[in-house]
Amino acid sequence: MKDFLKRNGLWVLFAVAVIAVSLAVMSFFTTTSSPLANAAQVITSPFRTAFTAVADWFNDKQAYYADYKALEEENQELRDQIAKMERSVRQAEADSAENKRLRELLNLRPQEEKWELESATILERSSSNWTRSFTLSKGTDCGIAVHDAVITSEGFLVGTVSKVGTNWCTVLCITDTDTSLGALVFRTDEIGVAEGDFQLMDEGQLKLSYLSPEAQLLNGDLIVTSGLGGYLPSGLVIGSVEEVKLDDSGSTQYAVLSPSADFDALTEVFVIKDFTVVE
Length: 279
Known about the structure:
This protein is of the alpha+beta class. 39% of the residues lie in helices and 28% in strands. The protein has a domain at 116-275: Thrombin, subunit H (Beta Barrel), CATH 2.40.10. The longest helix has 72 residues, at 35-106. Mean pLDDT is 78; it is low at 108-113.
């Protein structure tokens, strides 16, 4: 051993020095891991970087797809809302035009100037298989009398006063089975009688009877009061034709009418206490 150290001591010292220097250099570049671990980290680092890049790209695509789907759904909801609003605007414009046309055609505005009106609040509603009526908050103390017509603010006929007290009155709805009104088909001037019907009352409808055999009615035809007899003003809107049918004999036709007034939505009405008949 001594001979070996004597012959090779210088080389051994040189090798130890080289190893020491190498370890020092490696220690300089990494202070938290062993040389082997550091070498493994250096070798695998590019692979880890590539994997991280692929994972980030995949996550970005997932997030983009999720955001795209959310925006697509939100855009569809907005498109649906816009379409609904456009339909509402078109309907409002159509309703406004129709209301203006009816007022012009039926001459309601000039006629209202000749009506003596009394506003009243609906206090009670009564509905059964036999009758449908309203109790109003005004009576004889305001000049209201039996047979007075009751209308909405649009001029749609609600019914007629059947009973009256000091500060109240009862109104028979136009769908009530005891109701019978002189009626006119606005398009053709055909005369008939609008009356309540047991079967139709449950559907909130009434019928137009006593039509001539030559009567040509169409679905949607406007029906107004004829004013014959002097009990009601002419031109009050009763409703529109829903369907034309034949009676049980098959020889006489009648029309099913849908009232223009929305009875369930009414809270206030107007009683026509007096009017000038327009012939």
